[in-house]
Design brief:
about 280 residues; alpha/beta; Spore Coat Polysaccharide Biosynthesis Protein SpsA, Chain A; 9-stranded mixed beta sheet; 13 strands; about 30% helix; globular
Amino acid sequence: MNSNNEITESVILLGGMGTRMLPYTKTVPKEMLPIYDVPNIFKVVEEAYLSGIKKIIFVVTEHNMELIKRFFSKDDYLEKFLRNKPDKLSKLAYINQIIKDINFKYVYQKELGTYGALYSARDYIENDNFIVMYGDDLIDSKIPLTKQLINSFKKNGKQQIALYNAKENIPKNGIAVLNKNCMLINLVPKKETDSNLIVHGRMLLNKKIFTIKNKLKTYDNNEYYLPHSLLNFNDVYGYIYTGKYFNIGEKTGYIKASIYFSLKDLNEKDNIIKFINKIKEDYE
Protein backbone atom coordinates (compact mmCIF):
# COMPACT_ATOMS: atom_id res chain seq x y z
CA MET A 1 0.00 0.00 0.00
CA ASN A 2 1.08 3.57 -0.61
CA SER A 3 1.43 6.13 2.18
CA ASN A 4 0.84 9.13 -0.08
CA ASN A 5 -2.40 10.86 -0.98
CA GLU A 6 -3.85 7.89 -2.88
CA ILE A 7 -6.97 6.63 -1.11
CA THR A 8 -7.45 2.90 -1.66
CA GLU A 9 -8.61 1.61 1.74
CA SER A 10 -12.00 1.78 3.44
CA VAL A 11 -13.19 0.70 6.87
CA ILE A 12 -16.89 -0.20 6.99
CA LEU A 13 -18.39 -0.18 10.47
CA LEU A 14 -20.92 -2.97 10.94
CA GLY A 15 -21.32 -3.22 14.70
CA GLY A 16 -24.62 -3.43 16.51
CA MET A 17 -27.25 -6.12 16.64
CA GLY A 18 -29.95 -4.43 14.54
CA THR A 19 -32.42 -4.41 17.41
CA ARG A 20 -34.57 -1.77 15.70
CA MET A 21 -35.24 -4.29 12.94
CA LEU A 22 -36.31 -7.17 15.16
CA PRO A 23 -37.64 -9.82 14.87
CA TYR A 24 -36.12 -10.24 11.40
CA THR A 25 -32.61 -9.56 12.69
CA LYS A 26 -32.88 -12.36 15.22
CA THR A 27 -31.49 -14.69 12.57
CA VAL A 28 -30.33 -12.45 9.71
CA PRO A 29 -28.07 -9.44 10.36
CA LYS A 30 -29.40 -6.04 9.35
CA GLU A 31 -26.61 -5.69 6.77
CA MET A 32 -28.20 -8.49 4.78
CA LEU A 33 -31.67 -6.91 4.59
CA PRO A 34 -32.52 -6.62 0.88
CA ILE A 35 -32.60 -3.29 -0.90
CA TYR A 36 -34.69 -4.43 -3.86
CA ASP A 37 -32.53 -7.32 -5.12
CA VAL A 38 -29.25 -7.00 -3.20
CA PRO A 39 -28.37 -6.93 0.50
CA ASN A 40 -27.94 -3.38 1.70
CA ILE A 41 -24.25 -3.91 2.52
CA PHE A 42 -23.64 -4.44 -1.19
CA LYS A 43 -24.78 -0.86 -1.88
CA VAL A 44 -22.18 0.45 0.56
CA VAL A 45 -19.44 -1.75 -0.91
CA GLU A 46 -20.44 -0.72 -4.43
CA GLU A 47 -20.02 2.94 -3.48
CA ALA A 48 -16.49 2.17 -2.31
CA TYR A 49 -15.74 0.14 -5.44
CA LEU A 50 -16.94 2.90 -7.78
CA SER A 51 -14.73 5.33 -5.86
CA GLY A 52 -11.53 3.36 -6.52
CA ILE A 53 -11.25 1.53 -3.21
CA LYS A 54 -9.14 -1.64 -3.45
CA LYS A 55 -9.25 -2.87 0.14
CA ILE A 56 -12.20 -3.00 2.53
CA ILE A 57 -11.93 -3.77 6.23
CA PHE A 58 -15.25 -4.85 7.72
CA VAL A 59 -15.57 -4.28 11.47
CA VAL A 60 -18.04 -7.02 12.40
CA THR A 61 -19.56 -9.02 15.24
CA GLU A 62 -19.98 -12.75 15.64
CA HIS A 63 -23.62 -12.22 14.70
CA ASN A 64 -23.01 -10.89 11.19
CA MET A 65 -19.57 -11.95 9.95
CA GLU A 66 -20.31 -15.33 8.38
CA LEU A 67 -23.16 -14.22 6.10
CA ILE A 68 -21.30 -11.09 4.99
CA LYS A 69 -18.14 -13.08 4.33
CA ARG A 70 -20.13 -15.66 2.38
CA PHE A 71 -21.75 -13.03 0.16
CA PHE A 72 -18.40 -11.44 -0.68
CA SER A 73 -16.84 -14.75 -1.70
CA LYS A 74 -17.15 -16.68 -4.95
CA ASP A 75 -19.80 -19.38 -4.78
CA ASP A 76 -18.60 -22.20 -7.02
CA TYR A 77 -21.52 -24.43 -6.09
CA LEU A 78 -24.10 -21.81 -7.09
CA GLU A 79 -22.28 -20.99 -10.32
CA LYS A 80 -22.12 -24.66 -11.24
CA PHE A 81 -25.84 -24.96 -10.54
CA LEU A 82 -26.52 -21.99 -12.86
CA ARG A 83 -24.14 -23.02 -15.66
CA ASN A 84 -27.03 -23.72 -18.05
CA LYS A 85 -28.92 -20.58 -17.04
CA PRO A 86 -26.83 -17.74 -18.47
CA ASP A 87 -29.45 -15.06 -17.75
CA LYS A 88 -29.28 -15.84 -14.04
CA LEU A 89 -25.56 -16.46 -14.03
CA SER A 90 -25.05 -12.99 -15.49
CA LYS A 91 -26.54 -11.51 -12.31
CA LEU A 92 -23.46 -12.70 -10.44
CA ALA A 93 -20.91 -11.31 -12.90
CA TYR A 94 -20.78 -7.79 -11.45
CA ILE A 95 -20.57 -9.07 -7.88
CA ASN A 96 -17.80 -11.48 -8.87
CA GLN A 97 -15.86 -8.63 -10.48
CA ILE A 98 -16.02 -6.65 -7.24
CA ILE A 99 -14.94 -9.73 -5.27
CA LYS A 100 -11.99 -10.11 -7.63
CA ASP A 101 -10.94 -6.45 -7.50
CA ILE A 102 -11.27 -5.81 -3.75
CA ASN A 103 -9.27 -7.33 -0.92
CA PHE A 104 -11.72 -7.98 1.94
CA LYS A 105 -10.60 -8.18 5.56
CA TYR A 106 -12.65 -8.88 8.68
CA VAL A 107 -12.00 -7.77 12.24
CA TYR A 108 -14.14 -8.11 15.34
CA GLN A 109 -15.16 -4.95 17.16
CA LYS A 110 -13.35 -4.84 20.51
CA GLU A 111 -14.29 -1.34 21.71
CA LEU A 112 -17.73 0.22 22.07
CA GLY A 113 -19.04 3.01 19.84
CA THR A 114 -18.13 4.16 16.35
CA TYR A 115 -14.66 5.33 17.38
CA GLY A 116 -14.20 2.06 19.23
CA ALA A 117 -15.16 0.14 16.10
CA LEU A 118 -12.67 2.07 13.98
CA TYR A 119 -9.96 1.70 16.62
CA SER A 120 -10.42 -2.07 16.43
CA ALA A 121 -9.34 -1.94 12.75
CA ARG A 122 -6.22 0.17 13.25
CA ASP A 123 -3.70 -2.65 12.73
CA TYR A 124 -5.27 -3.54 9.36
CA ILE A 125 -4.92 -0.06 7.85
CA GLU A 126 -1.73 0.39 5.87
CA ASN A 127 -2.05 3.81 4.24
CA ASP A 128 -1.85 7.15 6.03
CA ASN A 129 -5.31 8.20 4.81
CA PHE A 130 -8.42 6.07 4.45
CA ILE A 131 -12.20 6.15 4.14
CA VAL A 132 -14.65 5.33 6.94
CA MET A 133 -18.19 4.24 6.04
CA TYR A 134 -21.13 3.52 8.33
CA GLY A 135 -23.05 0.44 7.25
CA ASP A 136 -26.36 1.97 8.34
CA ASP A 137 -26.01 5.04 6.10
CA LEU A 138 -26.99 4.53 2.48
CA ILE A 139 -26.38 7.48 0.17
CA ASP A 140 -27.23 7.70 -3.51
CA SER A 141 -25.65 10.46 -5.58
CA LYS A 142 -24.54 10.96 -9.16
CA ILE A 143 -20.91 10.87 -8.07
CA PRO A 144 -20.47 8.36 -5.20
CA LEU A 145 -20.05 10.26 -1.95
CA THR A 146 -16.83 8.43 -1.15
CA LYS A 147 -15.43 9.64 -4.47
CA GLN A 148 -16.56 13.17 -3.67
CA LEU A 149 -14.63 13.09 -0.39
CA ILE A 150 -11.54 11.78 -2.16
CA ASN A 151 -11.77 14.57 -4.75
CA SER A 152 -12.18 17.18 -2.00
CA PHE A 153 -9.17 15.78 -0.16
CA LYS A 154 -7.06 16.03 -3.30
CA LYS A 155 -7.93 19.74 -3.47
CA ASN A 156 -7.37 20.77 0.13
CA GLY A 157 -5.39 17.96 1.78
CA LYS A 158 -7.68 17.98 4.82
CA GLN A 159 -9.48 15.22 6.65
CA GLN A 160 -13.11 15.14 5.50
CA ILE A 161 -16.45 14.62 7.21
CA ALA A 162 -19.65 14.33 5.16
CA LEU A 163 -22.41 16.73 6.18
CA TYR A 164 -25.96 17.13 4.96
CA ASN A 165 -27.82 20.45 5.11
CA ALA A 166 -31.17 19.15 6.34
CA LYS A 167 -34.52 20.85 5.93
CA GLU A 168 -36.43 18.37 8.09
CA ASN A 169 -35.93 15.53 10.58
CA ILE A 170 -33.10 17.42 12.24
CA PRO A 171 -31.81 15.56 15.32
CA LYS A 172 -31.67 17.27 18.69
CA ASN A 173 -27.96 16.63 19.16
CA GLY A 174 -24.73 16.41 17.21
CA ILE A 175 -25.27 19.31 14.82
CA ALA A 176 -22.05 20.32 13.07
CA VAL A 177 -20.74 23.87 13.36
CA LEU A 178 -18.19 25.07 10.80
CA ASN A 179 -16.03 28.17 10.61
CA LYS A 180 -15.91 30.45 7.57
CA ASN A 181 -13.45 28.08 5.90
CA CYS A 182 -15.78 25.09 6.36
CA MET A 183 -13.58 23.54 9.03
CA LEU A 184 -15.33 21.58 11.77
CA ILE A 185 -15.20 23.44 15.09
CA ASN A 186 -17.95 21.84 17.16
CA LEU A 187 -20.84 19.39 17.48
CA VAL A 188 -23.65 20.83 19.58
CA PRO A 189 -27.36 20.36 20.42
CA LYS A 190 -29.68 21.91 17.84
CA LYS A 191 -30.97 24.44 20.40
CA GLU A 192 -27.50 25.97 20.55
CA THR A 193 -27.01 26.70 16.84
CA ASP A 194 -28.66 27.93 13.66
CA SER A 195 -26.80 25.24 11.72
CA ASN A 196 -28.76 22.37 10.17
CA LEU A 197 -25.69 20.36 9.22
CA ILE A 198 -26.10 16.69 10.10
CA VAL A 199 -23.19 14.27 10.24
CA HIS A 200 -23.64 11.34 7.88
CA GLY A 201 -21.54 8.20 7.89
CA ARG A 202 -18.76 8.95 5.45
CA MET A 203 -15.36 10.32 6.46
CA LEU A 204 -11.85 10.52 5.08
CA LEU A 205 -9.41 10.33 7.96
CA ASN A 206 -5.72 10.18 8.75
CA LYS A 207 -4.14 7.49 10.93
CA LYS A 208 -3.39 10.12 13.56
CA ILE A 209 -7.01 9.53 14.64
CA PHE A 210 -5.67 6.52 16.59
CA THR A 211 -3.26 8.60 18.71
CA ILE A 212 -5.97 10.39 20.71
CA LYS A 213 -7.85 7.49 22.31
CA ASN A 214 -6.67 8.39 25.81
CA LYS A 215 -8.00 11.92 25.39
CA LEU A 216 -11.55 10.84 24.61
CA LYS A 217 -14.46 10.68 26.98
CA THR A 218 -17.17 8.10 26.64
CA TYR A 219 -20.88 8.77 26.15
CA ASP A 220 -23.95 6.56 26.53
CA ASN A 221 -23.13 3.00 27.59
CA ASN A 222 -19.38 3.79 27.67
CA GLU A 223 -19.26 4.31 23.90
CA TYR A 224 -16.59 6.29 22.07
CA TYR A 225 -18.10 8.47 19.33
CA LEU A 226 -16.10 8.94 16.16
CA PRO A 227 -17.51 12.36 15.11
CA HIS A 228 -16.75 13.83 18.55
CA SER A 229 -13.19 12.49 18.39
CA LEU A 230 -12.60 14.70 15.35
CA LEU A 231 -12.95 17.79 17.54
CA ASN A 232 -9.40 17.06 18.71
CA PHE A 233 -8.13 18.19 15.30
CA ASN A 234 -8.22 21.53 13.49
CA ASP A 235 -7.92 20.08 9.99
CA VAL A 236 -11.33 18.43 9.51
CA TYR A 237 -13.12 19.85 6.49
CA GLY A 238 -16.92 19.80 6.56
CA TYR A 239 -17.91 18.56 3.12
CA ILE A 240 -21.56 19.43 2.44
CA TYR A 241 -22.94 17.01 -0.10
CA THR A 242 -26.16 16.68 -2.07
CA GLY A 243 -27.84 13.34 -2.63
CA LYS A 244 -30.44 10.95 -1.31
CA TYR A 245 -29.81 9.71 2.23
CA PHE A 246 -31.42 6.71 3.94
CA ASN A 247 -30.92 5.48 7.47
CA ILE A 248 -31.37 1.78 6.82
CA GLY A 249 -30.76 0.90 10.44
CA GLU A 250 -34.39 1.75 11.23
CA LYS A 251 -37.62 0.53 9.67
CA THR A 252 -38.90 3.68 7.95
CA GLY A 253 -35.54 4.49 6.37
CA TYR A 254 -35.14 0.92 5.21
CA ILE A 255 -38.60 0.86 3.57
CA LYS A 256 -37.95 4.21 1.84
CA ALA A 257 -34.62 2.94 0.50
CA SER A 258 -36.20 -0.26 -0.79
CA ILE A 259 -38.87 1.68 -2.70
CA TYR A 260 -36.41 4.27 -3.99
CA PHE A 261 -33.99 1.71 -5.45
CA SER A 262 -36.76 -0.52 -6.81
CA LEU A 263 -37.91 2.41 -8.95
CA LYS A 264 -34.51 2.46 -10.64
CA ASP A 265 -35.45 -0.80 -12.35
CA LEU A 266 -37.14 0.51 -15.49
CA ASN A 267 -38.73 -2.87 -16.15
CA GLU A 268 -40.62 -2.74 -12.86
CA LYS A 269 -40.96 1.00 -12.25
CA ASP A 270 -44.48 1.42 -13.69
CA ASN A 271 -45.86 -1.62 -11.85
CA ILE A 272 -44.45 -0.42 -8.55
CA ILE A 273 -45.80 3.11 -8.99
CA LYS A 274 -49.25 1.74 -9.82
CA PHE A 275 -49.16 -0.39 -6.71
CA ILE A 276 -48.09 2.53 -4.51
CA ASN A 277 -50.87 4.72 -5.89
CA LYS A 278 -53.43 1.97 -5.33
CA ILE A 279 -52.58 1.36 -1.70
CA LYS A 280 -52.36 5.11 -1.16
CA GLU A 281 -56.02 5.32 -2.12
CA ASP A 282 -56.82 2.60 0.41
CA TYR A 283 -55.31 4.62 3.24
CA GLU A 284 -56.66 8.06 2.36
